[in-house]
Specification:
The complex is a heterodimer. In chain A, the strands form 2 sheets. In chain A, strands 2, 4, 5, 6, 9, 10 and 11 form a 7-stranded mixed beta sheet that branches. A 4-stranded antiparallel beta sheet of chain A has the order 1-3-8-7, with no helix packed on it. Chain A starts with a strand and ends with a strand. Chain A is mainly β. Chain B starts with a strand and ends with a strand. In chain B, about 0% of the residues lie in helices and about 55% in strands. By secondary structure, chain B is an all-beta fold. Classes of the chains: A mainly beta, B mainly beta. Chains A and B meet through strand 4, strand 5, strand 9 and strand 10 of A and strand 4, strand 5 and strand 10 of B.
Amino acid sequence: EAGVTQFPSHSVIEKGQTVTLRCDPISGHDNLYWYRRVMGKEIKFLLHFVKESKQDESGMPNNRFLAERTGGTYSTLKVQPAELEDSGVYFCASSQFEAAGSPLHFGNGTRLTVT
Amino acid sequence: SQKIEQNSEALNIQEGKTATLTCNYTNYSPAYLQWYRQDPGRGPVFLLLIRENEKEKRKERLKVTFDTTLKQSLFHITASQPADSATYLCALLKNTDKLIFGTGTRLQVFP
């Protein structure tokens, strides 16, 4: 089966611009997560979708970040306007079951650089 | 605040030896603990899950222990190989799916 795919793999934008990251989860996985790793720090949770609904968005840093999952398939994460501190690697992950402890399948991430 | 500590220093071991990585946590009572492997430029890959009522879990050359009294998990790779070189992440969660990651320990296995 195809894994979780993320696009683009790299993005370099200027402060104040807008960037949209895309994630295609494994087919049939209702649960989709966004995580972020900023330089030198641990990977941190951003939000969790179950199908098209936001289950938990407690990790979203501020209202410059908007995540959507229309139709319950792929998801987008938009940053508008981007700030320097938004630089990092954004990971998407999916899982088949909502039950706690289910392994997450991660994509290879989008490396975002804001200059 | 909740804190997960993994050795920030890289662990260098010789091929064939057992690698032991440590994950300590404070101010947290996880129901589950997971270990992931991450290679440069790639996303984390799930390795093992252990529940709070389990002391030990094995999978091929991998073994994980979970001591809720010490608030510690140990991750062992026996008969290590150069291909095992990677960063290993521990991650905790309670009864939700919000994983909390440690910063990871880089393992280097040399021939």
